[in-house]
Amino acid sequence: MARRKISVCILLTALIQLCNCSIDSCPGPCSCFPLQTSGLIVNCSSRHLKDVPDLPEITVRLYLQNNLITSVTPGALDHLVGLQEVDMSGNPWSCDCQILYLKSWIESIPVQRNPRNLKCATPNTVSMKQLENLTGNDMSPCRRTWAIKCRKFFIRDLYLIGLTVLVLILMSYVVRMARKLACRIAVTTRTCHKKASSESYKSK
């Protein structure tokens, strides 16, 4: 009985330490609560945040609604692989090219709270439009154009490829001509040998 109590105490101590470690990793302006199963509830709502804080990997539920966040750096949320629920509504989102990352990321989360209140604030062409309703026509300025340096590299590569093909064609032509010449030499040599042998036979 005493051993069982000791084991229970050790287990409870370990769980308390785990919870403390999880809460210690909580972003400063936010509140974090451990779930009974595993992971954290991270509540950063209504904190006047302008940027997404550094979030712990064990975040399961994330609440960032009603802040002043305008954008999320592409890749900044990829480490939240266990996230099951998110609310990022009520922020003045700038729907420029970077918003495509956020739109795709949010759509991958199983539970999205208040998606209708997830709206663009700028630019004016899409102001008050829901993120889930953004289309390719709305994001036409984001169509990728090659940089001048990339074009230069591409043109240079085309020249190199064309030069390589030309060299290969010339080499194949030279090889064919060399083979024909070798055949002619061989035929001429055989003919000369035959004539020489026939003349020597006649002289005998």
TrEMBL record:
Q: Does the keyword Acetylation apply?
A: no
What are the residue boundaries of the LRRNT domain, all occurrences included? 25-61
Domain of life per record: Eukaryota
Q: Which residues cross the membrane?
A: 158-175
What membrane topology was assigned to this protein in its record? Single-pass type I membrane protein
Record's subcellular location:
Membrane
Tell me the first and last residues of the signal peptide.
1-21
Swiss-Prot/TrEMBL GO biological process terms: blood coagulation; cell adhesion
Specify the LRRCT domain's residue ranges.
Answer: 91-143
Tell me the keywords, alphabetical order: Blood coagulation, Cell adhesion, Disulfide bond, Hemostasis, Leucine-rich repeat, Membrane, Signal, Transmembrane, Transmembrane helix
Q: Which GO terms describe its cellular component?
A: membrane
PANTHER family annotated for this entry? Answer: GLYCOPROTEIN IB BETA, PLATELET GLYCOPROTEIN IX
Q: Kindly provide the name given to this protein in its UniProt entry.
A: Platelet glycoprotein IX
Organism listed in the record: Engystomops pustulosus
